[in-house]
Design goal:
The chain has 10 helices and 8 strands. With 297 residues, it is of the alpha/beta class. The strands form 2 sheets. Strands 1, 2, 3, 6, 7 and 8 form a 6-stranded parallel beta sheet that branches. Strands 4-5 form a two-stranded parallel ribbon. Strand 4, helix 6 and strand 5 form a beta-alpha-beta unit. The longest helix has 19 residues. 54% of the residues are buried.
């Protein structure tokens, strides 16, 4: 992972990184990643396109409703960890792309009628030309910083550059406005919150951690998601890990079993918005929380 700043800031950031167990580098398959497999874990099997699942666009809130919800939540200047618990929707989110597994992830999502939200790293956009546009068509895209640093370790000017530069680049590459942001490793503080708000982006964290960036294999990734899955959940995954791609079919099977639909983060939040009180409670505002941010991702 590359760093910006003086030697002193580099030392401080390195010390902080030593405390962040299990993190992986942006834009590479990372430790513990294995090649994807077409077989479904836990005994699942490939199914015809859309089998057992209505496309995520069915019954989704209108674009105007989504925009109004995002604007209201952005005005709070706080991160969102989940939506309300009353609907039948969840959001699968994928960090650190685009990467070599992105085309396969998109094919699997499209085949099974699943929409995703993709938080992209600015300095790897050139590795996947055309991918951000495809990801927007498949769901939604967001800002995941330029070089995947620990943002609270940076001075304000460099922090702003990390977010603003990526927001511009992702908007250009994907053909649309970028209104979502996720801090690398889930590392945030009031300064990070303020930068996201100033740039008109909603800071999106998660309440279910698949642990894929910590080296979990495909069966463990699917099991970690299953244990916490419930309406309103936001799930942390990574699109640059083969084990994650292999786990997707088992996750899709679980969505079917529980009669849940995977939609984008804006669709999820607009369909069942978290209350201001829920947002202010942070991760504790998510019912049955499973694997809230632990400074990785």
């Amino acid at each position: 992972m590359r760093r910006a700043g003086t030697a002193g800031r580099t030392i401080a950031a390195s010390a902080l990184l030593l405390a962040l167990a299990g993190c992986g580098s942006a834009g590479s398959p990372g430790r513990g990643a294995a090649g994807p497999s077409g077989a479904s874990p836990a005994g699942g099997a490939e199914r015809p396109a859309g089998a057992g699942r209505a496309p995520g666009t069915v019954g989704a809130p209108t674009a105007g409703t989504q925009e109004a919800t995002l604007s209201r939540l952005i005005s709070l200047g706080l991160p969102v960890y989940c939506a309300g618990p009353r609907g039948d929707m969840v959001a699968l989110t994928f960090d650190d792309g685009p990467g070599p597994y992105t085309p396969l992830a998109l094919r699997k999502l499209a085949k099974h009628g699943v929409r995703g939200t993709f938080f992209l790293v600015g300095n790897v956009l050139s590795r996947g030309p055309g991918m951000p546009l495809r990801e927007r068509r498949q769901g939604a895209v967001g800002d995941h910083s330029w070089t995947h640093p620990v943002l609270p370790a940076l001075p304000a000017a460099l922090m702003h550059d990390q977010l603003a530069r990526t927001q511009t680049a992702v908007a250009s590459a994907s053909g649309g406005r970028v209104r979502l942001f996720r801090p690398p490793y889930g590392a945030r503080n009031p300064a990070v919150d303020a930068q996201s708000k100033a740039l008109g982006m909603l800071e999106v964290l998660w309440n279910i951690d698949s642990r894929d960036s910590l080296g979990a294999n495909y069966a463990a990734i699917a099991d970690n998601v299953r244990r916490g899955l419930r309406p309103g959940a936001i799930v942390l995954l990574h699109e640059n890990r083969g084990q994650t791609i292999r786990a997707l079919l088992a996750i899709f099977d679980e969505l079917d079993r529980r009669h849940l639909r995977a939609v984008t983060v804006p669709e999820l939040l607009a369909a069942d918005p978290p209350s201001e009180a829920q947002v202010r409670r942070g991760p504790q505002g998510c019912p049955g929380i499973s694997g809230a941010p632990r400074a990785h991702g």
